[in-house]
Design goal:
Rossmann fold, alpha/beta, 5 strands, five-stranded parallel sheet, 6 helices, 162 residues
């Protein structure tokens, strides 16, 4: 399986490449966004790891470029030093499937690269229903329904016997 790593931190890229290569991945690193985006029309990968803080362009723009040129079934992980909720939302909206905060833990990246992990091959839900949000919608509905039915039945508060 082939993976592109787009990150200007050569030490981190080298560590990630070594760890993934020991686990069967063929890695190609790119130190900046523009040179990577220029290769999108001729290079194909099974997964992408994109740093959000590249020197020449926003990692979010790289994510968007990947999503406009690569099938939606190809997983993309955003690797970043930014960790606010807004940063996560922006990365997911730009096209990331997963989000890892630096300093990256190699074991965590390997777990996400494993089949079934964040970078493992999988089927995507149709575009009109984002797969990450589907469990939230259904869980939220069940929770809301449970709370509404409990309140209308006049039962006791949480933790107390009804």
């Amino acid at each position: 399986m082939r993976i592109a790593i787009i990150d200007d931190d050569t030490v981190l890229s080298s560590s990630i490449t070594s760890a993934l290569a020991r686990n069967g991945w063929a890695c190609r690193t790119h130190a900046d966004g523009r040179s990577f985006v220029a290769t999108l029309h001729r290079e194909r990968y099974d997964a992408y790891i994109v740093d959000s803080g590249l020197p020449d362009m926003s990692g979010l723009d790289v994510l968007r470029a990947i999503r406009t040129r690569v099938p939606v079934t190809v997983p993309v992980l955003c690797l970043t030093a930014r960790d606010t909720e807004q940063d996560v939302i922006e990365a997911l909206e730009a096209g990331a499937d997963d989000f890892v905060v630096k300093p990256a833990r190699i074991g965590e990246l390997l777990a996400r690269a494993h089949p079934g992990g964040g970078l493992g091959p999988r089927q995507r839900d149709p575009p009109e229903r984002h797969y990450l949000l589907a469990p939230v919608y259904s869980y939220g509905y069940r929770l809301e329904h449970l709370l509404t039915s409990t309140a209308t039945a006049g039962s006791a508060s949480c933790g107390e016997p009804g």
